[in-house]
Amino acid sequence: SIAILLYLARKFKTPDHWYPSDLQKRARVDEYLSWQHVNIRGKGSKLFLTKVMLPLLTGQPLSPEKLEGVTEELNVVLKQFEEKFLQDKPFIAGSEISLADLVALVELMQPVGAGYNLFEERPKLAEWRRRVEEAVGKQLFQEAHEGILNIKNL
């Protein structure tokens, strides 16, 4: 999915903020896109799979110990994300939204869909989410995440 996003950004000459031509800003985007695979995506998907999909497929509830361990793994990478990538900036690459922000928030919506409100006790993360939603458009954002946010209705 990252490769196709980069291809589309280049092919259709999207506004520069999505995948900046400035090499330092682009490096920040690339750094996050490389890091997120085994961190945000890996831990967020793992929580989603263990909390929602496995019980759905097996008919067995998840043990509280297993859920606690998976949740703690996600909490560790969320802290890293805030400290390393967000820091005190509005967006990952600086003052404008980029593909890095879009990818990050999409991945974080999986645990939210699983019932884990990871934004609740993280004001910096919650403010960043608000900025990303506003930049994309709240209606479009809700539309794009409707399926994942309603996954428990299966």
Automatic annotation (TrEMBL):
Subcellular location field: Cytoplasm
GST C-terminal domain mapped to chain residues: 22-154
Entry annotated with the keyword ATP-binding: no
The name this protein goes by in its record: glutathione transferase
Family: Belongs to the GST superfamily. Theta family.
Gene Ontology BP terms: glutathione metabolic process
One cellular component (GO) term of this entry: cytoplasm
EC number per UniProt: 2.5.1.18
Database matches in CDD domains: GST_C_Theta
Reaction catalysis annotation: RX + glutathione = an S-substituted glutathione + a halide anion + H(+)
Organism: Phaetusa simplex
Class in the EC hierarchy, top level: transferase
Keywords per UniProt: Cytoplasm, Transferase
InterPro entries: Glutathione-S-Trfase_C-like, Glutathione-S-Trfase_C_sf, GST_C, GST_C_Theta, GST_Theta
PANTHER family assigned: GLUTATHIONE S-TRANSFERASE THETA-1 (PTHR43917:SF9), PTHR43917
Keyword Metal-binding: no
GO molecular function: glutathione transferase activity
Subunit structure: Homodimer.
